[in-house]
User: What shape does this take?
Amino acid sequence: MGTLAAVVGIFAGLLLAAPAAHATTAPPAASESPAAVTETGESESPGGSVTDGAEFQNRISGVLRNAGSPVSGVTIKASANGYEAQTQTAENGSWSIGVPEQGAYEVELDESTLPEGLGLADGQENPRTVTFAGTSNITTLFLLGEGIVLQGDSFGTKLVERAVAGLSFGLLLALSAVGLSLIFGTTGLTNFAHGEMVTFGAVLAFAFSAAGLPLWLALILAVAGGAGLGYVQDAGLWKPLRMRGTGLVPMMIVSIGLALALRYTILFFFGGATQQLPDSQSPMLELGPVSISRNNLVSLCVSLAVILVVAALLLRTRIGKATRAVADNPPLAAASGIDVDRVIRIVWMAGGALAALGGILWAYYRPGVSFNMGQQILLLIFASVTLGGLGTVFGALIGSIIVGLFVEISTLWLEADLKYVGALLIMILVLLVRPQGILGRRERIG
Assistant: This one.
């Protein structure tokens, strides 16, 4: 109990300090660039004559290029419900405008500020309406007459881009899904608090970075904090319940209560606003015909590397073999001399660390850190685990990739708000054909 109280105290202190520390740091990277400086060099309140909205977290941004070269000094305006803001494109062509709340905004490029002889490409809507959809950042691109070629013109290019985005999202999901699958495989517990473990990692990363720590150290400490949360959960809650012989259904209900308690504890200390991790705004990279943001590319590489390491540990190390033995038959593993409680404790710590890392990458993918971000992704994590086969780590990986690909590729035909519904639908259809999942084993129940 002393350990639990200490961890809770440290966590509460970090969360109390984080918003204040964040408020005193420099604005996001997008607003540090010349794109955030108006003609008057000032950023006034919404009631003033000119503002770039640098004080707001919700942002509309983009990049202006001509024949691959950035176009600077062009004025972009945004307005809605009496609020008006404007900015100028920076030396690298980027621009960003902050807005007080999410909703629909009219964005206009002032064509009189374009270089002589340069105009918008045919068919470009100006002004145009942009609408926030579940994220604190939205991007819109104005294409110039000799500028960026709209890659959406080619269905094949769009398909490749969506497939790459789907692979990145699927591997991000796999980090959390593998942790959940390991916990289910060794304990049989369906942990509904896993989403809050995802949130915990992102919130800790924000808290440590807002406290002034270098980003690399903040991320490492956040992942370690996720492992610590897994340790505290098992030592303070799940092991005592197992020792008392509590059934899996009551434990599942306890996990729902734990999820609510963690979620609203984070809300109390962290607040309901969406905050940004450092370097959340990243440039787009051109890899042949594919455009991908630097953050998404880093997320893809990190996720893949971590999953390969986890797979190697499970297949090649003694603790990995012991984990698979406990997942297969706990009584037989105990009779063989394996310390089942120690294996379960390690699994909880590994699951917490993977969930925390998944939360950090999810914050960069959205982007943004919010108190309910884990809840938003929890159903997709469950879909991945169920689709691949409950309790199978490699099944969770395959299920996550399928869900990620389907979510992103489906946007070619579905509205963006419906893409998660499609992922859950494909899970239902697969389970109707193969109830045990792709790599799961048939079991007789009853």
Remarks:
- DSSP finds 13 helices and eleven strands in the chain.
- Confidence is low (pLDDT under 50) at residues 19-48, 147-153.
- The CA atoms of residues 176 and 355 lie 5 Å apart.
- The radius of gyration is 24 Å.
